[in-house]
Amino acid sequence: MKNIYSVLKGPCLTEKAALLQEEDGRVVFKVHPKANKIEVKRAVELIFNVKVKDVRTANMHGKQKRVGKTVGFTKNWKKAYVTLSEGEINFADEL
Fold this sequence. Notes:
The protein is an alpha+beta fold. It has a single domain, classed as 2-Layer Sandwich (Alpha-Beta Plaits), CATH 3.30.70. About 25% of the residues lie in helices and about 35% in strands. It is built from two helices and six strands, in the order βαβαββββ. Strands 1-2-6-3 form a four-stranded antiparallel β-sheet. A two-stranded antiparallel sheet has the order 4-5. The longest helix is centred in the middle third of the chain and has 12 residues, at about 35-50. The radius of gyration is 15 Å and the shape is globular. It starts with 7 loop residues before the first strand and ends in an 11-residue tail after the last strand.
């Protein structure tokens, strides 16, 4: 990935993500499926001007959906759990 803006697709707004942000200072992002941890760390640091302590990624499989008789799947996607360093501001409230 050459463009840092194509790595991050957006925040993952779930109840679990909100709890992780309040308790541990972790922020959850939807990221490009081919992005690695180094690219995610660089993108978050450059876009939001924060110091990243740790990045963990997870590949999420698409769910089975049914419309009438037709059965299909949603797309597979990837998410990243980004742990901010101590003393960093809570920047995801502005998203």
